[in-house]
Amino acid sequence: xxxxxxxxxxxxxxxxxxxxxxxxxxxxxxxxxxxxxxxxxxxxxxxxxxxxxxxxxxxxxxxxxxxxxxxxxxxxxxxxxxxxxxxxxxxxxxxxxxxxxxxxxxxxxxxxxxxxxxxxxxxxxxxxxxxxxxxxxxxxxxxxxxxxxxxxxxxxxxxxxxxxxxxxxxxxxxxxxxxxxxxxxxxxxxxxxxxxxxxxxxxx
Length: 204
Description:
alpha/beta, Translation Initiation Factor IF3, five-stranded parallel sheet, Sulfurtransferase-like selenium metabolism protein YedF, TusA-like_sf, DsrEFH-like, Se_metab_YedF
């Protein structure tokens, strides 16, 4: 039987608690959870991962997110001792935008440039304060597409609430429109708007 949990407007740990309550005794069907912020998404997704239900999440609008738990003998048992109720802090730095305009870092050897860029994207995941947004355009569009060595790092950043935006014109130009693996497609107007509104811009 399918269920829906509307946790919009609730602060942590309430979305997690409401989700746990809905999961009890539910071994089949889809559990839909609605929340209104990215940190709640992270916490509910963490709960789903702990319970083995492979959660999926989408941003529906500016302040509405949907998470799906596909329940297949994946109910959360009472003896679970993992601290699902702990809230993940928001580690993003407000107004920090990282701009990746190439899949290489620096000039010179292309091979070395790609190695350096892979290291740079990984280093972003290790910052105490993560970027609020990562913009990828021109050759940087390759980083968020199928086959990129930086995909897992970008997915990790997205899971922590970092907005990943890749230029749609660039994806089309390189024939990668159907190969985007992380984040969403954007346009030059939004790229310009994000950069203009940034408090600081990080460029490799």
